[in-house]
Amino acid sequence: MRTILNFVRALRHALAHIKLRSMTQPGHFQTLYRGHHHWLQSWLRKKLGCPEQAADIAQDTFVRVLAAENERPLQQILEPRAYLTTIAKRLMVDFFRRADLERAYLAELAALPEALQPSPEQRLQALQLLQEMDQMLDGLSPRVRQAWLYSRLDGLKHADIAELMDVSVPRVRQYLARAARQAYILRFGTAEPGEVSQALPAVPSESL
After folding, report:
1. Contact 194, 205 (CB under 8 A)
2. Are residues 10 and 102 in the same domain?
3. Who's near 41: CB < 8 A, 6+ residues apart?
4. Fewest CB within 10 A of the end CB: N or C in the chain?
5. Domain assignment present for 63
6. Are 34 and 61 within one domain?
């Protein structure tokens, strides 16, 4: 299991490096990368205590910088190291959350009888699904997250959820549609017109 996870991490790092090479253009980005990549990786190494994880997050940070260039042109960044550390800190939060999920999942597996132990491939698939769910839940508002958990984990009907949350049934449906839309965006990168969340009418008066 550990060997598979390490392979996945190495593959993720390699893909990030390839993406950087393919996206890199002369000018502001090369100046930013050459001037601050080594510093950022050293800063992350001190924070994480692991050179490999520091290298991964440093690469991911610059990928995020490039992805956000349309909204935040590089020439407008007056404090590049502050900007880079802000992105890197967010990525570290994600990293620690994934690590917590992995530890909890592996601990649960260790408690299972040997006959019930899943295969390494099944373990990896389950862990990836947990991480995707965690990422989706992190992007939801507290009320939407609560409704989704009531529905998916507790198996409650819409009317029961509405009673527990003191909202209307249409509001519960709207919450669940928003959760579905967030899951769609995370998987496919965008929400298509006509998604279930767009089809539901707005429900006034109750706070989101």
Report:
1. no
2. yes
3. 54, 55, 58
4. C
5. yes
6. yes
**Same structural domain for residues 9 and 88?**
yes
pTM value > 0.85: no
Number of domains in the chain: 2
How far apart (Å, rounded) are the C-alpha atoms in residues 160 and 166?
10
Burial class (CB in 10 A: 0-12, 13-18, 19+), 135: middle
Tell me how far apart the terminal alpha carbons of the chain are, to the nearest angstrom.
41
CATH number for the domain harbouring residue 148: 1.10.10
Which residues touch 151 (CB under 8 Å, ≥6 apart)? 158, 161, 176
Evaluate whether residue 67 is within a structural domain: yes
Q: Are residues 192 and 152 in the same domain?
A: yes
pLDDT in tens, the chain (208 residues): 444 445 445 545 544 444 444 444 446 778 888 889 999 999 999 998 989 889 989 988 988 888 777 677 777 778 989 999 999 998 888 788 777 777 777 787 778 788 778 887 887 777 777 777 777 777 788 888 888 888 887 788 999 999 999 999 999 999 999 888 887 776 665 555 444 444 333 334 444 4
CA dist., res. 153 & res. 105, Å (int): 17
